[in-house]
Amino acid sequence: MLQFFTGTQFTTSMELGLLYGLVALALYISFGLLKIADLSTDGCFTLGCAVGASMTVAGHPFLALPAAMAAGIVSGYVTAFLQTRLGVESILAGIIVNTGLYTINFLAMGSSSNLNIFGSDTIFSLAKGVSSAGWYRKLFTLLILLCIVLVICFILHWFLNTTLGLSIRATGDNENMVRASSVNPAFTITVGLCISSSLTALSGALLAQYQKSCDINFGTGQVTIALASLMIGETLVRRGSIFKRTIGVILGSCLYRLIVAIAMKFNMPAEFLKLASALIVTAAIVIPYMREKAAFYRRRMGRGNLTGK
Amino acid sequence: MEYMLQIDHVTKTFNPGTVNEKTALRNVTLNLKRGDFATIVGSNGAGKSTLFNAITGAFFTDSGRICLDGEDITFKKEHLRSRDIGHLFQDPLMGTAPHMTIEENMSLAYLKASYHRKSLFSSITKKDKAFFRGKLAQLHMGLEDRMDNPVGLLSGGQRQALTLVMATMVTPKILLLDEHTAALDPATAEKVLDLTKRVVAENHLTCLMVTHNMHQALDVGNRTLMMYNGTIILDKEGEERAHMTVDDLLEQFSIQAGKELDNDRILLSGKVER
User: What is the dihedral of CA A183, A188, A189, A190, to 10 degrees?
Assistant: First the structure.
């Protein structure tokens, strides 16, 4: 089946998998650990993209990444502030921030709905010049992204095992218990959403440099795609340490991109991708549920046989 | 300071001004001395749990004052009060995070020990692990060998015992037990209750325990309270309490509470048999 799949195409899907995997990691924190559906993800991704692109155009390709993350933290803080201090439903808080970010993103790109950064140095273009070896030319993008993602996974593994990290994980599990441990859940939710949004924005900034452009609509549907990756990832790695699970999420994202690449091979128009990711998410949620149901029916039928004996 | 807990004319009304208006605490005054272990009985809706929630800060009271160890905590936030308060519920699932391991749960509870924010970035050390192990070993439930297991895998009794350890690992100023053995089978309930008595005695804890078991109400601790319709209608300790029988307790209840006894008598005495 993979015969028509060239090496370059495989590398490209892996690159995209790593790049978008950061959004899936963000959702692992907000949706997986905090159990909050953070719908500001789409806008936050574009925010990172816009800030990253603007900074890159201004000649700061490296500074672009932390700047985008900082913008993400602000966005996450606002989302958290709305739900923890002002009593806005968490879903609504995300939607509100997402809507507001559209204007912010427009302004961040210099009152334009797209921004080209062709000709500007990016972390990828700078790394390209390091060596002219053939294998390096083919793989340097993948290597850079792999390094970034691995570093993030390591940091998350460390952080989520500190007492603050444990409190964040417990918040989605039993908020009552967090409060009983003298930690304010409003604080853990805020820290969690800030971290998650910073990862989303970092992913956006990397995409801006990777594609050498930024568009106001880049973020649309990111939350569903990331959710699909997260679901696939959680099916791949069910148990184990945080590091293993984060790697699982990244693998999920890579697998998702591979599926997409294969679908493209069958001449699926790019516009169909969003529908495909919606279907994948639905399947990922429905299949475990149906499996449970099936087990129940099997058991009920089995009992019928037993009494028949 | 002689008193550990002082509740001074506290009143709480839920949904005021609506058809669902309910005054759950009426002018409640209660002083607990250091080391007091009081049991509370009372029918459903008497205000026992509301009293506990007023102490933990789940809501702010409408009027009155609450002092813990001489500090006025009437308007202190819930998560800040919890440093000094251990709270166990009837539902064993309430006190622990099911998807996290025993060790992780304990290390969260142990956060109460550290007042400094910098410890938020510390990880579980070998020393902590040994300390947790020792605490678990005292339960004689074999939990010390399952510290990497998610708490969700434990039975209700094991979870409640773990919650008790977590609530008392950092000695609280007051321990609130809200029918914490009611959801367990009789043998396990007995075990958890024995454990409770031991932990309270060893740490000289001040403790309030809600129970529906009249024998327990008189046997456990040194003081018996009865609540009815948002007020404390009976408060016995010392000699007076020592001579009380379950029937006396029910009798007292009928005198103080009046007419609605019949229903409650059935309810309360039904729980006596075990």
Answer: 120
Q: Which residue of A has its CA nearest to B93?
A: A174
pLDDT digits (tens, 9 = 90+) for A238-274: 778 899 999 999 999 999 898 888 888 888 787 887 7
| Residue A170 to chain B, least CA–CA distance (Å) | 6
Q: Identify the closest residue of chain A to B78 by CA–CA distance.
A: A179
Domain ranges (residues) in chain A: 2-272
At B82-93, the pLDDT tens digits run 888 999 998 988
Give yes or no for a contact between B246 and B272, defined as CB atoms under 8 angstroms apart. Answer: yes
Domain ranges of chain B: 3-96+169-270
ipTM score of the complex? 0.81
Candidates 3.30.1330, 1.10.10, 1.10.3470, 3.40.50; correct CATH number of A2-272?
A: 1.10.3470
Number of other residues whose CB lies within 10 A of the CB of residue B9? 13
Return the residue matching tokens 């507001």: A100
d(CA A252, CA A244): 12
For residue B53, the surrounding DSSP H or E stretch is: helix B48-56
Give the B-side interface with A, CB within 8 Å. 77-80, 82-83, 87, 93-100, 104-105, 107-109, 111-112, 119-124, 167
Q: How far apart are CA A187 and CA A277, in angstroms?
A: 33
* pLDDT for the residue numbered B268: 56
Q: What does the alpha-carbon distance between residue B117 and residue B139 come to, in Å, rounded to a whole number?
A: 31
The CA distance from B7 to B28, in Å, is 7
A36: left (phi over 0), alpha (psi -120 to 50) or beta: beta
DSSP letters spanning chain A: -GGG--HHHHHHHHHHHHHHHHHHHHHIIIIIIS----TTHHHHHHHHHHHHHHHHHTT-TTTHHHHHHHHHHHHHHHHHHHHHTS---HHHHHHHHHHHHHHHHHHHTTS-SEEE-TTS--HHHHHHTT---HHHHHHHHHHHHHHHHHHHHHHHHHHTTBHHHHHHHHHHH-HHHHHHTT--HHHHHHHHHHHHHHHHHHHHHHHHHHHTEEETTTTTTHHHHHHHHHHHHHHH--SS-HHHHHHHHHHHHHHHHHHHHHHHHTT--GGGHHHHHHHHHHHHHHHHHHHHHHHHHHHHHHHHHHHH-
Q: Which residues of chain B have pLDDT under 70?
A: 1, 114-118, 256-274
CA angle A23, A72, A245 (to 5 degrees): 30
Asked whether A186 and A65 are in contact (CB, 8 A), the reply is no
Which SS3 state, helix, strand or coil, does residue B116 take?
coil
Asked whether A45 and A219 are in contact (CB, 8 A), the reply is yes
Q: Could you tell me which of A296, A256, A295, A292 has the C-alpha nearest to residue A276?
A: A256
- The CATH number given to B3-96+169-270 is 3.40.50.300
Interchain pair B82, A164: CB under 8 A = no
Secondary structure class of B27 (helix, strand, coil) = strand
Residue given tokens 């026992």 in the structure block: B48
Q: B243 is written with which tokens? A: 């001579």
